[in-house]
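for ur thesis appendix - Cobalt ABC transporter permease. copy paste whatever u need, i formatted it the way the template wanted (i think)
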Amino acid sequence: MTRASETPADATAAPTGPRHAARAALRRAAVEPGSGTGPALPRSGPAGRAVGLRARLLAPVADRGNALHPGAWWLWALGLAVAASRTTNPLLLGLIVGVAGYVVAARRTDAPWARSYGAFVKLGLFVVGLRIAFSVVLGSPVPGSHELFTLPELPLPGWAQGIRIGGRVTAEQLVFALYDGLKLAALLICVGAANALANPARLLKSLPGALYEAGVAVVVAMTFAPNLVADVVRLRTARRLRGRPTGGVRAVLQIGLPVLEGALERSVAVAASMDARGYGRTAHVPTAVRRTTDVLTLGGLLGVCAGSYGLLAAEGAGYGLPLLGAGLLAAVVGLRLGGRRSVRTRYRPDRFGPRSWLVAASGVAVALLMIRANAHSFDALHPGVVPLIAPELPLWPALSVLPGLLPAFVAPVPPASPTREEPSA
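the 3d part is after this line
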């Protein structure tokens, strides 16, 4: 009697779909050449080494052991944000947003915080509209000769000189407001990409011991928005299934109460878990060490803030990078000393592996290349509005954004879920 083909015991637990099956087959072929239905692969020689190298370079399916460090995602996103802050060219800003969106689509999981990316995109569009509305109502210092329409101007007292409400609205001021709003929207979307890709709980666990108390507050604040979005989506879906309206003031009021109740329940659960884990206990540290730690940490963080502002400002790259480096060094030393007060331990701490370094380096590379491009191609990165000219996509700045796509190929692939599985043949 012919026996049916046997399958491994863990085949039902492994991710399915053509993409994962092809990747698993390639790895099996690299380990056991000749197995399977395809042609036999050589065990040694140049061809065998090429197959083994390709299998090692393929992004593995994500699990607890090979997941990317959450700090790598934030460094990558902040690098894209720095690049977006160096230009007002809408084509370059659209390219940066496209790179961030592609990586999010390729490496986003089904976790609640991963659903917040769409909310950040909508917030960015709202910022663009609000910036244009402010320009129309409050005017703009940008002169223009292409008048579109004139609003009734509200007379203001003498102490409000320089401020006007209403008046002429020109095409130049609207285009300037659009460019400015697009830059702010790109910054928000980059932050939203980090919020959708990085696990906030693991980010909290990776913080130094000296920042544990502050980190709890920051992570709770970061997780509030994603959980709020998830609750709203869940409640709107439930109302739609019951045939109830999901729009209007009444629907918003009926949805708001369960959302607030869920937020309160999560707060109580977090407080109970913190109390059970001994949150707030500290070890004894000499006074001199504590004061030195405070000075180094505070001075380092101020240096980091000033250096970051210099990198994000239009003309601060000269002093921003050295100040950022000195601030980081002082902050690391201070946090290292301050960690002596923490008596907590880490269970399976996250480490910066080679793939995490590649992801972080890709964001830093985009920021550095865009800063250098801003120094040599300022006019291309900041198209003029007086006179009005059509923006062009400069070649080298556009190529400088492309390294930001690296995480979509080197980061571990999220495991397939039943809702995201591709239909098998």
